[in-house]
Amino acid sequence: MSLIKHELYKLFSQRVIYIAMIFLVSIQVLYFFADNNIKVHKPVQAVFHELQHMTPDDKLAWAEQLQAEERKRINDQLPYDKTLEPQIIASYEITRAQGYGIDASYYLQGWSNVLMFNQQLGYYLIGALCIIGLSSIFSREYGSRMDSLIYSSKHGRRRTVSAKLAVTVIYCATVCMLYGAVQLTLSGWFYDLKGSSEPLRAIHHFFAQTSYTGPIWSYYIIQVLFTIAGCSALGLLVTLLSSLTRHAIIPAFIGGTLYLLPDVMMKLNLWIPYVSETIVTLFPYSRFVSQDHLSFVHLVPSYEIAGVPIYNETETLFYIALYISVTCLLVYFSMRKRQVS
Length: 341
Description:
Number of strands: 2
Mean pLDDT: 84
Order of helices and strands: HHHHHHHHHHHHHHEEH
Number of domains: 2
Number of helices: 15
Shape: elongated
Largest sheet: 2 strands, antiparallel
Strand content: under 5%
Low-confidence stretches: none
Helix content: over 70%
C-alpha cells in the first residue's frame, strides 16, 4: 500500500496534469454553454413544474389543446407569441413521450446532458487527460536512470510494476469521476437533476427503444463503471507503451493515434478494405470510453452461447476485460525482460 501511495504521489506531482486538466475542463464548460440554450430550457422546465399536479391524461389534453391553438394561429397568419414558446415546447415533449407510452413528469434536459456527455465530447477529454498523465509513468524513471535502483532488488520489479498498474486504474477512475462531477454540477446548477427515479425511457430523445427497465440513476452508475473500465483499458495500453521507451512523447503519440484513428476513420468515412476494418477491430478504445454501445437496445443478440443471448453490452464488457488482462500480462513480460542499466 505504501508503494501505491508513493506511485500516486509521483503521478499526481506532474504539473502537466493540472495544466491539461484546467484546459480540458474549460473546454467542457464552454461546450456545455454552447450546446445548451439555457434561456429556452429553463422556462420549459418551469412549465413542467407547474404541470406536476396534473394527471397524465390531463397533461395530454392540455398539450393537444395548446397545439391545436398554435396550428390555428399559424393558419390564421397571426403574429407569433414569443411568450407561449415554453408552453409549446413542453406540449410537444408531452405528446412525443405519450407516443412512446411514457408519462413526461419531468423535463429531463439535465439528465440528458449528463448521460450523453461521453458520446458527444467526454471520450475525447477523458482520453486526452488519461494519455497525458500516464505517458511518462515508466518513461520518467528510464530518463532519470532511476530504473536501475528500483528494479534491482529481488521483489522491487514485480511490486513496482503491480503498484504502477494499480495506480493506472486509480488515475483512470479519478479522471472519469472528475469529468462526471463537472457535468453533474453544471447540469444540476443550471437545470436540476429531479426525475432521477424515472425510467430511462423517459429520456425518449435518446433511449425510447431501450430494453433497460431501471431508473435513470441506476443506468448512470452502470455508465460510470463502464467508462472507468474502458478508460482503464486505454490507460493500461499507454502504460505498456511507456514501459518500452524512455521518451514520454512516444507513448503519448502512439496511444493518442491508436485511440483516435478508428474514430476518425469512421466519422470521415475513410474506409480502406481490410485495413480499416482491422484497425477498428483491434483498437476499439474510443468505443470503450464513449459508451455508444450502452443503450441496452436488445433487438438482435450479438451471439448466443448455449442458447443464452449475448448482447452488445456483455460483449463489450468481455472485450474490455480481455484487453485489460492481456495488457497487464504484456507489461509484466516487458519489465521481466528489461535489462536495467
